[in-house]
Amino acid sequence: MSIFSDVPQAPPVAVFKLTADFREDSHPQKVNLGVGAYRTDDCQPWVLPVVKKVERLIVEDSSLNHEYLPILGLPEFRSASSKVALGEDSPAIKDNRVGGVQALGGTGALRIGAEFLRRWYNGVNNTATPVYVSAPTWENHNAVFADAGFKDIRPYHYWDAANRGLDLAGLLDDLEKAPEHSIFVLHACAHNPTGTDPNQEQWKKIAEVMKRRNLFVFFDSAYQGFASGSLEKDAWAIRYFVSEGFELLVAQSFSKNFGLYNERVGNLTVVAKDNDNLTRILSQMEKIVRTTWSNPPSQGARIVSKTLNSPELFDEWKSNVKTMADRVLLMRDQLKSKLQALGTPGTWDHITQQIGMFSFTGLNPKQVEFMIKEKHVYLMASGRINMCGITTKNIDYVAQSIHETVTSIQ
Amino acid sequence: MALLKSNKVILCLGNISPSLGVLSTRNSSWWGGVQMGPPDPILGVTEAFKRDTNPKKMNLGVGAYRDDQGKPFVLSCVRKAEAIIAAKQLDKEYLAIGGLGDFTKACAQLALGADNEVLKSGRNITVQTISGTGSLRIGANFLARFHGGPRDVYLPKPSWGNHTPIFRDAGMQLKAYRYYDPATCGFDFKGALDDISKIPEQSVILLHACAHNPTGVDPKPEQWKEISALVKKRNLLPFFDMAYQGFASGDIDRDAWAVRYFIEQGHNILLSQSFAKNMGLYGERVGGFTIVCTDAEEAKRVESQLKILIRPIYSNPPMNGARIASTILSTPDLRSLWLEEVHGMANRIIKMREQLVAGLKKEGSSHNWQHVIDQIGMFCFTGLKPEQVERLTKEFSVYMTKDGRISMAGISSGNVGYLAQGIHAVTK
């Protein structure tokens, strides 16, 4: 009798299963619009030119070794990352009340932040504090907070399916009704999976309610630069909230905007009231990190740090990021035009109104199934497509497939 | 253990809750009640060392290998592997949740031996982890979620300081079995058997595969055999922590002997591996976690659950270090080079042990220092008391942990004499 006889088979993680199925498919025109990774117009992964350059510098630097990083990570990486999020001239940084915790990707940053909140926010070890995530949201948000110990994870209104846009009224209503001190996970830009972001006026309204109701702000920032092509524009919401005096957390990922997916580079930016609070917070972050991974991996942080801290490399990086963002914008534009040209039923403005890597097409589960099974175009059951999977070579086929799907399946 | 105490302090002080509902975000902070966390006892030693201006200072705290010049050592096989990898111009796409397949396969083979029946039958699941810590944590989380037995994990007394908080944070409880005998500075075999015989069935027992940290005291093969029989008799679940394979004796097969013996004897073990020390890949965070299951079908179920656990911690592991390790392990001449270099590191440590004892004799010490030579691996439990440690630090700028543990790697032929002087001075 094994002690593990009763371990049930867990369902596969959907987004990875989709890619696995895609790989096994032998159809010559198959298209993968699933997992969120950038692709070039040749549908290839893209290692950013600046990354290649910096990696060479690192390999050639014989003074570098593989010693442990400090628990909180590479100091130059942490400070440069927080600066990218909050801005060069951030008053909060000048006040010495901003700190970073290098983490394993955005996921790692979210998890360390969640663990910290569960231990120290709203009392001590208060697992009952409600955590609100958008409806819909990145499918891993729920598990991150649940596994960190939170017992009450709730949706807040976000996506208005009928109008294919932001349900601001619903969102504000949820903010008004949420118990004081509830934690809200906000997507800083390029909302995953809907691609629908609040505009500045809407962000201001959200901030006003959150401040009045003493709600906690936890930003998930996985696409800075990638969404609009501008680092500043994509960080506007974060900076606005900071300027409004919020103490907050920002989980930053460099997976997409640096194309460093598999090196697991992330940073949890902490904005505290003052340096004294920051110091105590970081000391407790250390405790959490020490029992999770002891100290973070070196390679990715070195690449990002070297890049962000060198004016020339920083500029080169920004232009690489703009290259990616521009290609996505182009595909959005062209997809919408082609669907309109085909006379595909429905309105398709949302494709160009949405921003970032993903688009919530509005296709329903039956239509999604048709797309996958009959057209060999792979997308998430929610109707989410990764715009990066579309290229000038396959866009006609994709548009055709959507057209056929929408006209034959209701 | 120091860390055990510090956690209790945090929890006690933390019960002074900030008043809720009265805070305004304009004038006060959410974090007023957050206590200052005490410095990590092991890593804290290095911090203190850094601040010391004495030119003769020695850092015998953290377990990172140093060459005979006291410098960090990047293995040649690592540099060679890095060059090979750089030339390949690989992409940076996400790894699978369980990590790089080439790595996990090689990792399991290294531990179990390439022709192990377990590997042939596919009844192991091995996932890539964030070095040894990440591996232990995944294992601990898995136990907390799926182990039907008692919540207790039995650690040897003493054990690595981070074991306790790792298991605790995962939701397990900690107990201990006797291990180190301060009277002999050796293994308390009788005490260990006695305690193990009383452990409730189905409890988890953690064993250091080789080069016990912090004591350097390992059971002999005959003793391992008896421990295995007893663990089987008590129906305990063995969890091996192998952070020093190759680094202990210089021979990777010899250092994995206990792990392989247990498996041979029918124990379906849990195993954590680290490549931080034996490949010098500390900061790249390379490790593996293995569960030996009943059969391949069970392994598949267990694997699916491990993925569910890993995904909300860090999604998937980092590529760089795993790629280096897997290149070394699967490229014949790099693998031989690696084995040579590991042997070299282990030999230097052994030499330092001998030189330290010779040095102490030369100083005229009347104590028996045989244990320094008998112990194995990176660490040595000197037997020094806290007051003696404090003096050694204050008067000689020799930094080590309060329990008297020294990292042999921090000793070189250039400073071993100075160390002998210091130890003799505080113990005579």
Automatic annotation (TrEMBL), chain A:
It is found in: Cytoplasm. Its cofactor is pyridoxal 5'-phosphate. In eukaryotes there are cytoplasmic, mitochondrial and chloroplastic isozymes. It comes from the Eukaryota. GO terms for biological process: aspartate biosynthetic process. The lineage of its organism: Eukaryota, Metazoa, Chordata, Craniata, Vertebrata. Residues 29-402 form the Aminotransferase class I/classII large domain. This is Aspartate aminotransferase.
Automatic annotation (TrEMBL), chain B:
Keywords: Aminotransferase, Mitochondrion, Pyridoxal phosphate, Transferase. SUPFAM superfamilies: PLP-dependent transferases. It is an enzyme of class 2 (transferase). One of its GO terms (biological process) is L-aspartate catabolic process. InterPro entries: Aminotransferase_I/II_large (IPR004839), Asp_trans (IPR000796), NHTrfase_class1_PyrdxlP-BS (IPR004838), PyrdxlP-dep_Trfase (IPR015424), PyrdxlP-dep_Trfase_major (IPR015421), PyrdxlP-dep_Trfase_small (IPR015422). Residues 56-423 form the Aminotransferase class I/classII large domain. Its cofactor is pyridoxal 5'-phosphate. Its EC number is 2.6.1.1. One of its GO terms (molecular function) is L-aspartate:2-oxoglutarate aminotransferase activity. It comes from the Eukaryota. It catalyses: L-aspartate + 2-oxoglutarate = oxaloacetate + L-glutamate. One of its GO terms (cellular component) is mitochondrial matrix. It is found in: Mitochondrion matrix. PROSITE patterns: AA_TRANSFER_CLASS_1. Homodimer. PANTHER family: ASPARTATE AMINOTRANSFERASE (PTHR11879), ASPARTATE AMINOTRANSFERASE, MITOCHONDRIAL (PTHR11879:SF22). NCBIfam families: PRK09257.1 (NF006719). In eukaryotes there are cytoplasmic, mitochondrial and chloroplastic isozymes. Belongs to the class-I pyridoxal-phosphate-dependent aminotransferase family. This is Aspartate aminotransferase.
